[in-house]
Amino acid sequence: MEIGGKLDPAVIRRVQDSFDRQGLMAHLGAELAEVKAGQVTIRLPFRQELTQQHGYFHAGGTSSIADSAGGYAGYSLFPEGSAVLTVEFKLNLINPARGEWLEAIGRVIKPGRTLTVCQLDVWGVDGEQRIHVATGMQTLISVKGDA
Amino acid sequence: MEIGGKLDPAVIRRVQDSFDRQGLMAHLGAELAEVKAGQVTIRLPFRQELTQQHGYFHAGGTSSIADSAGGYAGYSLFPEGSAVLTVEFKLNLINPARGEWLEAIGRVIKPGRTLTVCQLDVWGVDGEQRIHVATGMQTLISVKGDA
Amino acid sequence: MEIGGKLDPAVIRRVQDSFDRQGLMAHLGAELAEVKAGQVTIRLPFRQELTQQHGYFHAGGTSSIADSAGGYAGYSLFPEGSAVLTVEFKLNLINPARGEWLEAIGRVIKPGRTLTVCQLDVWGVDGEQRIHVATGMQTLISVKGDA
Amino acid sequence: MEIGGKLDPAVIRRVQDSFDRQGLMAHLGAELAEVKAGQVTIRLPFRQELTQQHGYFHAGGTSSIADSAGGYAGYSLFPEGSAVLTVEFKLNLINPARGEWLEAIGRVIKPGRTLTVCQLDVWGVDGEQRIHVATGMQTLISVKGDA
């Protein structure tokens, strides 16, 4: 399956259902913006409740949506009856995380039966301006189970 | 200064003040549990608002407190008038993140004038049981500024 | 300066001179294949002396050329009188490292006065076939000095 | 099995046999110094052939022995008929890598049936002096096969 290609609506529904069960995404105010084959985008609008000490987005918010975006990017390629777990991830915070919202894009680089590797990128969006705020890498494992 | 040793109360206050300005820590319900020289502990009590799709703590919550714990561990060793930024971090999620609360310990491995490297560890605490849920590494940079 | 663009011949010479002083590159048999602005390619032909226990390239060889490729990609953008040091790097080994040679490409994602972040990719090349064997990220620091 | 405890001599032999098949370890001049349960030490004596441009050990040499030390630390806990592959590793280079030799210690933090996580540490040894030159983390996967 081509990364970035169209997905079966049933798969998109499974991703959305799983996302909706993540209490943290709702608590942060994150939304699932786009679900393609092996590529998922999550948006996080700015709120005072998401800041670090200088008033920008806290790296924890950046990581939260980056981790979920990568996790669902991998999950979108898994066979039914599989669940996804994050094995590890690494994030470089390359610019101050500010803007009207953050946009995290998780994209599968290497799909696999057991392990899947994703690239993670987070952008700070302010009107027409998009600043690359974080880039990283994530390893996922597919296990038997739901979601 | 010995890592894990006692700090000047003025430094502890600077750490607490900076922590209190992190909107995300309050929003997640995290508390600064202990501040020693180069070693900081943050606690995050379990709430439905912090979960991933299987009902455990979301890796985003784990990362948020790990990043702040490491950041303040480094910051506690910086001279006054310095601020701390996370350059990058990497986390391995080694056990399901469950328990009454998570406890993140950031500990400076290599202090430096410009860069500081921390070890990050997160434990899931349930009564007397402590499970190691995440371990990682973080690079910090000291910049001029407040907090 | 545009990443991947042409460099002043004096800068290319500085990169080549520094590369030639790396005893390890010669010992492994690695060659500097291409030097562009913020993007450097290093090739490593297969030899029995570079293997792990299954006869493929050892991850140490993969890392060696990935680290040097990223280091020189950053260095190519530094002002004269600067030296480059690797702060940290992370590599995911996504396919068995085999082929006639490995090709490591280091590419600057975020240039900076103090810190520079590179993407690292390594390919196994066999005739017309190119297999993505490793992908990663690297943080560099610019310090005063030579090379 | 306790990490750092004694191993069955047959397991030590399997580790040594596999190490001896790594062409790169011989080419670099690395030696297997100690094999305990889940903890392996590899030594790399200084040679001009291992340097970077400033005359210190190249990060590629540091990584090579760190990766092998961690790999064999994990492998020492695997059941017979298993092989080990590195999924990913991350290394922070915290001090200049110099000394009469480098000593890499890989130590299992989290053993697992499929995935194993190791801590990696490398020391530069000069007479009585030991300097911590690198610290990192590694994820291994156990697959069916030999070594």
Automatic annotation (TrEMBL), chains A, B, C, D:
Its EC number is 3.1.2.20. The keyword Coiled coil does not apply. GO terms for molecular function: fatty acyl-CoA hydrolase activity. It comes from the Bacteria. Residues 54-128 form the Thioesterase domain. It is an enzyme of class 3 (hydrolase). Keywords: Hydrolase. Pfam families: 4HBT. It catalyses: a long-chain fatty acyl-CoA + H2O = a long-chain fatty acid + CoA + H(+); a medium-chain fatty acyl-CoA + H2O = a medium-chain fatty acid + CoA + H(+); a fatty acyl-CoA + H2O = a fatty acid + CoA + H(+). InterPro entries: HotDog_dom_sf (IPR029069), PAAI_dom (IPR003736), Thioestr_dom (IPR006683). PANTHER family: 1,4-DIHYDROXY-2-NAPHTHOYL-COA THIOESTERASE 1 (PTHR43240), MEDIUM_LONG-CHAIN ACYL-COA THIOESTERASE YIGI (PTHR43240:SF20). Belongs to the YigI thioesterase family. This is Medium/long-chain acyl-CoA thioesterase YigI.
